[in-house]
Specification:
The chain has 191 residues and is mainly β. Helix content is 0%, strand content 48%. The strands form five sheets. The protein has a four-stranded antiparallel sheet with strand order 1-2-3-4, with no helix packed on it. Strands 8-9-10-11 form a four-stranded antiparallel sheet, with no helix packed on it. The chain is globular. The chain starts with 9 loop residues before the first strand and ends with a strand. The relative contact order is 0.10.
Amino acid sequence: VAVLPHRTWVTWVSFSPDGTKLVTGEQGSGEPCHAIVWSTHDWDEIRPPMVHEDGVRSVQYSPDGQTIVTASVDGFVRLWDADSHLALEFNSAINHNDRVMRASISANGRHIVAGTLDGIVRLWDLSSGAVFARSAPGVLSRNGRWSARETEGSISVFGTDDLSQMVRHFDVRGRIANLICGNTGTRVLVS
């Protein structure tokens, strides 16, 4: 068993596609926080860490393993070179008006989807840096492929490659307090 020390509590972990590295995100409170890459061979930290101005809420490798995407409560989604850990030029374009709770890169590596604390899901085109889809408030699945939102006693699920196309619909009786969307988009948990 390996123990990977952090300054604060860990919010997210993700393996590289080839399994040779692990990236972790740490949460703070109004202070700089890190996404840290670890070697799975000897569990040593691979420096330098990637820094946000506040807590890192999610971390993920791109499918090709060349990029790491991080989301933070500082309002930014950042892209990093997976080898050097240097911020990529695209970073200035992915700014949100609220704390970013989760971000994910698409399987084809062309899009970033991000969900903020206000419940908005935005889909970014990496080639242009533009938002090309924005949802009404909802929740994002852990893998970033599905968005679910409540509308007048029902739940609608959308694929994040096209936030205008509903893929599932569930009728719900009673008041909805919490909503979680599963990784397949076929199940939602409502309380």
